[in-house]
Design goal:
Layout (H helix, E strand, L loop, with lengths): L2 E5 L2 E3 L5 E8 L5 E9 L6 E7 L2 E4 L7 E6 L4 E6 L8 E10 L5 E5 L3 E5 L2
Parallel strand pairs: 2-11
Antiparallel strand pairs: 1-3, 3-8, 4-5, 4-9, 5-6, 7-8, 9-10, 9-11
Length: 119
């Protein structure tokens, strides 16, 4: 299966910026969608941004502030986060969806990286 290694989380003040990175290893050529989810304490995991078939999707709460990018050459997806707010505080998880050679749909998750926005 595809393995995902993510990094870039940390502590930042409101209004600051942070860039998350997620690198896929394994059968990366089969990946057709990559995205970022987040989960705050007491909240359900939610989709923040995704990129598939050349189309980017953003949750309403992050539109205009976050940008997702997929570098195929490096098998890496990035999440550039600008104008961060305290409500962005969460553990962010990278996600990849793909088809196995058998045709079975599958997905993989990163280990999670903590993003804390606080003054």
């Amino acid at each position: 299966q595809v393995q995902l290694a993510e990094s870039g989380g940390g502590l930042v003040q409101p209004g600051g910026s942070l860039r998350l990175s997620c690198t896929a290893s394994g059968i990366a050529s089969n990946i057709d969608e990559m995205g970022w989810y987040r989960q705050a304490p007491g909240k359900e995991r939610e989709l923040v941004a995704s990129f598939t078939r050349g189309i980017a999707y953003y949750a309403d709460s992050v539109k205009g502030r976050f940008t997702i990018a997929w570098d195929n050459a490096k098998n890496t997806v990035y999440l550039q986060m600008n104008s961060l707010k305290p409500e962005d505080t969460a553990v962010y998880y990278c996600n990849a969806k793909y088809y196995r050679f058998s045709g079975v749909r599958a997905q993989s998750w990163g280990q999670g990286t903590q993003v804390t926005v606080s003054s």
